[in-house]
């Protein structure tokens, strides 16, 4: 991206071109990369928090989850925009008081920090999060994330074409062990 620097948690800063842009330009770039329409219907993606006072976006902080600790780091590094993979705002607020999410919203508004979340739009993107995660396995072909009408905890499926049933059984075994720390039976 064409912004001055990227900040990752653990205070690792990567300097790029010295450049700034308006928030609407930054959001347009993010939306062109992965349109919010790619996201699941239940998800909350895109620009989630827009400060009243507009300022140039010079510093973007990238995070998987926007926690209070990450928020403190964003303030310390003078971030103008936080790109949080998981949406920190999911349900409507009835009041903003002293809860940890309330504090994040209040701090962002007070400091003029915008928040953008791509979540499932990045999952479904070709070459996106799902494809990246599956690179750890010997998968021949991947189809996009599809919502599945099945009982919890299985609410989505990723279809992968493998060379043999044994490879498929091994893939299911490794994924479930890593995800849940237990083994599940594969029924082909």
Q: What would your notes on this structure say?
A:
With 188 residues, the chain is α/β, with parallel strands linked by helices. The chain has two domains: 5-121, NIF3 (NGG1p interacting factor 3)-like (Udp-n-acetylmuramoylalanyl-d-glutamate--2,6- Diaminopimelate Ligase, Chain: A, domain 1, 3-Layer(aba) Sandwich); 126-180, no CATH class. It has helices at residues 23-33, 68-76, 100-111, 119-124, 129-134, 165-180, and strands at 5-8, 12-15, 46-49, 59-63, 81-84, 114-117, 141-142, 146-147, 156-157, 160-161. The longest helix has 16 residues, at 165-180.
Query: Any idea of the CATH topology of the largest domain?
Result: Udp-n-acetylmuramoylalanyl-d-glutamate--2,6- Diaminopimelate Ligase, Chain: A, domain 1
**What is the CATH class name of the largest domain?**
Alpha Beta
Number of helices: 6
Radius of gyration: 19 Å
**CATH level-two architecture of the largest domain:** 3-Layer(aba) Sandwich
The spatial strand order of the largest sheet comes to 2-1-4-5-6-3
CATH superfamily of the largest domain: NIF3 (NGG1p interacting factor 3)-like
DSSP strand count: 10
Beta-strand content:
15-25%
- Give the count of structural domains: 2
Shape: elongated
The SSE order reads EEHEEHEHEHHEEEEH
Ends apart, CA distance between termini: 43 Å
State the major sheet: 6 strands, mixed
* Protein structure class: alpha/beta
The proportion of residues forming helix, as a percent range, comes to: 25-40%
């Amino acid at each position: 991206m064409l912004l001055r620097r990227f900040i990752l948690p653990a205070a690792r800063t990567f300097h790029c071109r010295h450049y700034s842009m308006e928030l609407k330009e930054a959001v347009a770039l993010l939306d062109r990369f992965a349109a919010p329409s790619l996201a699941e219907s239940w998800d909350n993606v895109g620009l989630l928090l827009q400060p009243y006072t507009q300022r140039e976006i010079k510093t973007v902080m990238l995070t998987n989850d926007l926690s209070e600790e990450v928020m403190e780091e964003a303030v310390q590094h003078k971030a103008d925009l936080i790109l949080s993979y998981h949406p920190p705002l999911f349900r409507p607020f009835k009041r903003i008081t002293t809860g940890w999410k309330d504090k994040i919203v209040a701090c962002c508004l007070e400091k003029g920090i915008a928040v953008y979340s791509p979540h499932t739009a990045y999952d479904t993107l070709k070459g996106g999060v799902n494809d990246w995660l599956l690179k750890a396995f010997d998968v021949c072909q991947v189809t996009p994330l599809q919502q599945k009408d099945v009982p919890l905890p299985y609410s989505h499926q990723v279809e992968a074409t493998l060379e043999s049933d044994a490879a498929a059984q091994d893939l299911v075994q490794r994924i479930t062990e890593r995800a849940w720390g237990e083994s599940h039976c594969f029924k082909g």
